[in-house]
């Protein structure tokens, strides 16, 4: 729960299946057979949109007990004058790095499962954040859906996820420029059979 990385579409399963209905057994100890990180082997470049939730809420960081929902994201959109749209790489800052300066990082805030439907309606391409999207410890624990954002996003939607990003520098740049969109470049490693990859995203203003 520390290193910045990209989740491939074979990263998690729901009811023994991954994206496009392929069986979880297609992921072996020697690597995955389908939906690997190689689907993005040529890299990704697109419009990045930062939704700085703590800034919109007037706080330094989001407490881990609070699930961030659609209303919070739309409040950030309104405050920043942006609208998430088709093909966007959406980065949601919850202030994890600011929070870890004063609290133990064992508890990490996350998103309400309803956010997955919102991203689907907006036709977002990729979701990134400074946590792992699902709160730690899990909220609304369900044996079938322990990590709903991961399971809905990766398995049902084909939505690649970027976990554990350091969003502090890009948030500072956005605030200074009063600009919350930028060109975002992602270059995952070419790992045959890989279920994910370390990542160093680059934002260009």
Order of helices and strands: EEEEHEHEHEHEHEHEEE
- The helix-and-strand class reads alpha/beta
How are the strands ordered across the major sheet? 11-1-9-8-6-4-10-12
Query: Proportion of β residues?
Result: 15-25%
SSE blueprint and pairings:
Layout: E1 5-7, E2 27-28, E3 31-32, E4 44-52, H1 53-57, E5 67-68, H2 70-80, E6 89-93, H3 96-99, E7 110-111, H4 114-122, E8 126-129, H5 148-157, E9 160-163, H6 168-177, E10 181-186, E11 196-198, E12 202-204
Parallel strand pairs: 4-6, 5-7, 6-8, 8-9
Antiparallel strand pairs: 1-9, 1-11, 2-3, 4-10, 10-12
Compact description:
This protein has 205 residues and is of the alpha/beta class. 24% of the residues lie in helices and 22% in strands. The protein has helices spanning 53-57, 70-80, 96-99, 114-122, 148-157, 168-177; strands at residues 5-7, 27-28, 31-32, 44-52, 67-68, 89-93, 110-111, 126-129, 160-163, 181-186, 196-198, 202-204.
List keywords for this structure.
6 helices; globular; 24% helix; 12 strands; two-stranded antiparallel sheet; eight-stranded mixed sheet; Glucose Oxidase, domain 1; alpha/beta
Task: Kindly describe this structure.
- Helix content is 24%, strand content 22%.
- The chain has 205 residues and is of the alpha/beta class.
- It has one domain (5-204): Glucose Oxidase, domain 1, CATH 3.50.30.50.
- The mean pLDDT is 95.
């Amino acid at each position: 729960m520390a290193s910045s990385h990209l989740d491939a579409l074979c990263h998690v399963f729901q009811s023994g299946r991954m994206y496009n209905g392929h069986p979880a057994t297609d992921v072996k100890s020697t690597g995955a057979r389908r939906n690997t990180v190689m689907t993005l082997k040529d890299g990704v470049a697109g419009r990045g949109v930062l939704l700085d939730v703590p800034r919109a809420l007037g706080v330094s960081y989001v407490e881990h007990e609070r699930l961030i929902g659609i209303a919070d994201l739309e409040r950030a959109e309104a405050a920043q004058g942006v609208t998430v749209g088709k093909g966007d790489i959406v980065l949601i800052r919850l202030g994890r790095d600011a929070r870890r300066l004063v609290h133990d990082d064992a508890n990490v805030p996350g998103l309400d499962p309803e956010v997955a439907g919102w991203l689907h309606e907006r036709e977002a391409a990729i979701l990134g954040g400074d946590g792992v999207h699902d709160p730690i410890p899990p909220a609304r624990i369900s044996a079938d859906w322990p990590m709903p954002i991961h399971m809905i996003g990766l398995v049902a939607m084909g939505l690649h996820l970027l976990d554990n990003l350091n969003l502090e520098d890009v948030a500072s740049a956005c605030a200074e420029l009063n600009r919350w969109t930028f060109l975002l470049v992602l270059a995952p490693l070419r790992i045959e059979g890989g279920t994910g990859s370390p990542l160093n995203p680059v934002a260009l203003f």
